[in-house]
């Protein structure tokens, strides 16, 4: 296992030269963030990003994410064209990031993260909850979310409002509300059965990010929240390219998900791991805590031990961090607490 760190490209307030100063940091996790979902990526843009990273002594072998247009999840009439574009993006990733260089070992497949969450990616009710130690964090409070109106233009949720108009959101939510879990799952199988042979051919490993939080929100189904969901998916699509992004904070928000047991059961499927901690404080309510085992509800040492015992040797990242030491910036993606998280993880790996 080796450390990686998410970097949002040139617009990221955290420069690569700071990321490289985190001890044991091997690579960045990035994407072409300004290409709208549905458009095929260009290899030369990725090559440029890779060179930027390598100039700072960091490798770039983990993509997060190539977004999946809603039409694929809905099974809409244009899905085949969108799947074709997604496959073109895979080919661009393989061309730009696959070849070996002084900075990267070429045998390990390049990882491509994605998720199949309808409309909303990760969802929180608050982005700056004050903790007793004076730090601020992302939190999800069930009552607050139930009071939220997803049709209200005021709603401030990360990751999705920017992409859709209010009317689009309304239409999408209504379409999904008419669908059953099985319908969305069937669309996921359709997608994976088309893309996994291509990923295999290109020596890429896909990494499915689970639902965050791992339950339905706003009356819309979510289908990748539990060990049972994963079991079924890996049996329906056995391709080795069909991998998992084990996000401990996403699965771990539900006390029903036993993370060390899941790490053991799915270790051969894990392509990438997001290692972070959450403190559960009631039915379907949680806040993101420091990575340390004592700070939250997840036993990260046990998860790391299980991944190691299962032979996982790929990339991991600290995922989100709190805002500490008066840092300001993109919620969840400051430098200081993620760097502390990285050092906690590296300590576990060394031990
Ligand atoms: C949040 C991230 C997610 C993740 C996507 C993967 O910080 O973990 O947004 O990148 O769900 O497709």
Short recap of the structure:
With 351 residues, the protein is α/β, with parallel strands linked by helices.
If you had to describe this structure to a student in words, what would you say it looks like?
With 351 residues, this protein is of the alpha/beta class. It has a single domain, classed as TIM Barrel (Alpha-Beta Barrel), CATH 3.20.20.150. Helix content is 36%, strand content 17%. The protein contains twelve helices and twelve strands. An eight-stranded parallel β-barrel has the order 1-2-3-4-7-8-9-12, surrounded by four helices. It has a four-stranded antiparallel β-sheet with strand order 5-6-11-10. A hairpin with a 5-residue loop joins strand 5 and strand 6. Helix 10 packs parallel to helix 11. The longest helix has 21 residues. The model has no long low-confidence stretch (mean pLDDT 93). D-mannose binds next to strand 4.
Present the secondary structure layout:
Blueprint (H helix, E strand, L loop, with lengths): L1 E5 L9 H4 L5 E6 L12 H13 L3 E6 L5 H5 L4 H19 L12 E6 L10 E5 L5 E5 L1 H6 L18 H12 L3 H21 L2 E6 L17 H10 L5 E6 H4 L7 H7 L4 E5 L2 E4 L5 E4 L10 H10 L5 E3 L18 H15 L1
Parallel strand pairs: 1-2, 1-12, 2-3, 3-4, 4-7, 7-8, 8-9, 9-12
Antiparallel strand pairs: 5-6, 6-11, 10-11
The structure holds D-mannose (DNO).
D-mannose (DNO) binds next to strand 4.
